[in-house]
Structures
1.
Amino acid sequence: MTTTTPRNAHASGAAPSASTAADQHDPTAGSSPTSDDGGPSLLRQPRAVWAVAFAAVVAFMGIGLVDPILPAIASDLDATHAQVMLLFTSYMAVTGVAMLVTGWVSSRIGAKKTLLAGLAIIVVFAALAGASDSIGAIVGLRAGWGLGNALFIATALATIVGAASGGVASAIILYEAALGVGIATGPLLGGLLGSVSWRGPFFGTAVLMAIAFVAITVLLPRSAPPERRTSLADPFRALRFPALRALAVTAFFYNMGFFALLAYTPLVLDMSAGSLGLIFFGWGVCLAVTSVLVAPCLHRRFGRIGVILAMFVGLGVVLAVMALTTTAPAALIVCVILAGAFLGVVNTLLTEAVMVAAPVERAVASAAYSFVRFFGGALAPFLAGFLAEVSVGLPFWMGAAAVVVAFVVLLTQRRTLGHADRDDEPEIAEAEALTVAEAS
């Protein structure tokens, strides 16, 4: 593949056009469940779609599942804050690298086998993490979990698009719904299971993913051979385009702010798993609602890049306030939940911009972008653990400073990104669904 491939040419693992995907995946080709008025029904979907959607919910739960049990892990395993932060660093670093190879894998073995491989990896590594007795082992096992998550999430959207009735729009809504439910309920489930034992969320994830594995094995038809094999070099070639490169660098620093808040705040609050679960449930609800409902409205009214810049200002202020109020739990709780609203808008609009940033396949653009930004998410918890030993508020200041850098990069590159404000409905719809990767 060359970097001038038209954006509407899809690799396996990206969301193909509705007709192409349906030819490859749809177990009910030729039939489309309808509502009472004769139109397509969003809720009347093939069983294969619900199987993948359920698995996607569980996969997205993994984003915030660990948050409520961080203090318990630190206490029971006699781990330092720096060691506990590595649970996020290993997960995010491996996920970022794995994003480079998911297209290569799925274009060779097919979507169904890629989904099952990802689920199997998560089941094994989540269960082993729950059975581990050392922080080092859990950190390593979280890395394996990240590989499985990357393989599954990168392929799930294409599978839902291919099998869903009602066209691409219905598939996107279902995927977004799975994303929102997973992000919001992950911390809540983590808090509930973590109230019994910090091992509970790990074992719970393994059980749910095992159920999803069986469901997809039984209900999802074998995918047709991919039309084209993706090269491992494709994502690196995509970063030659200035617009995509600018967005990737912006996302790198933005993700540092994101994960400084997500990974470090539970250790500062030092509350029970149940309490932390409720707090981050509120955070997840705000993130999901603003990502799906608020971000498109703001974009239509004010333009994509301008809204992202405004959200960076808001997020930077929130992180600065958190740095100044580390001894006031009530203030930290309010800031965490409020930050979810800013994060949701940025996640959606940044991902939308990526989809129109370079004339390459969307799967390739997403892989290149995700590779860079996930390393921001990996670096922030690593630095936060060491900075916390100097000052409790310093990790939040680091997050705020990173968001300022993201603001400056995006502002100085705004002319390069002028075309990213245009509306392109098919690409924007898919971009909103691919927001997983931001929260994820």
2.
Amino acid sequence: MATSPTTAHGRAVPEDGDKVLVRVEGHLGRLTLNRPRAINALDHAMVGRVREALTAWEDDDAVSAVLLDGAGERGLCAGGDIRAIRSSARDGSWRAAAFWRDEYLLNAHVDRYAKPYVALMDGVVMGGGVGVSAHGSVRVVTERSLVGMPETTIGFVPDVGGTFLLSRAPGETGTHLALTAEPVGAGDAVYLGLADHFVPSGRLADLTAALAGTTADGIDEAVARFAEPAPAPEIEARRHWIDACYSAGTAEEVVSRLRDHGDPEAALAAETVARKSPTSVKVTLAALRRARGLPGLAAVLEQEYRVSCAALASPDLVEGIRAQVVDKDRSPKWVPDTLEAVTDDDVARHFAPAPDGPLGLADL
């Protein structure tokens, strides 16, 4: 076991194993998600570890900024530990909800952080990985970045503030990403508002060293020295059919418009959406539309917590994780198995108050 890292003032940062590496380098508080074999997937202890470190550094004058990255070459973070979530859903426990509560509180903390929060979104950044990065103040992608919210594939709904981010993307591009669960590269991530800067992966080490040697006022200048123009967004050229089709009032009409549009890519998107959990697709569309009218991330996270808790009781969450991660047969049996069979009441129950009450973000 590694010794407990300390801040520049000698105060110990709480230690909870090595799945998150915490240290201070120069003026920079560094957080490295350290489960490379699992593409740094988040478990409950990791969430607590990150938030404890952020809290310790918030009032430490020696730490000017925070940088988050991931161990290994595959990515920043593949999301939450969905095997543990499936286990919780199967045995009817509240473990997954407790994880989500603390995870969403961390997402809000990142969004409200008083110091520059730099996220290196290199490689795979999915689900929960988006939550700990895309709410930061300085979001860096590379040529290896693959950013997405894959929840409808596993019978879930975009969370960690994902419906906030995607509901505010240009036109209906966020709706397209949410329903199809398709990831995007660096250029699209910047275009969609999920990232700010493009830095080639080979320059990240030099960028990190530069950030460690500067104060908060110099963060933007340091990033600008290494940033390059982002690749042209691919999704922009598809706006003609994305905006026309995903602006429909119902999920059934979205799929119908995609099939009838005439663009081969639209037809492919229709088939992709049709393979997702019908309940997840309908709830996701409703969550996005509601999120557009909510005042900010805190209110959206409160909504997402209600939706996530309701989804925990859905057979599709257990089945979707089984098909994608456990058995890997990619052949989930959804219940209900068509969009038409998912009723308005089925959707509405996902927005009922959570059994253990709100997150209390308005009080933070």
3.
Amino acid sequence: MYKQTTRSISVTVRPIYLEDQSTPSDNHYVWAYQVKIENEGSETVQLRRRFWRITDALGRTQEVRGDGVVGEQPVLRPGESFEYTSGTPLSTPSGIMVGAYTMEAGDGSHFDIDVPAFSLDSPHQPVRLN
């Protein structure tokens, strides 16, 4: 699990390799990632936008931006949390994701919270010793 806290908002991510949806012989690898966003602060916030940077094992980068997450823009009051699961495919057996959520505070101001970088690892990646 990977966790990062920004402005009293914690984001925890757990990536899961999906063997049953992957076809290594066709260079198709799929992961789910479970995200939990917890408001540990004293102000109500709403998740407005997401940003992801996905990098495969060859260094190819893809950026994804959009409103909300999984079709929602959850409101988190102090002490509340929101969980969702999404996924991403890659053409390599490993990669890394990192991102940010744009939050809106009660006064209408916006701020970004970091999503921790997390690795996408499959059992099909070659093991290398340093």
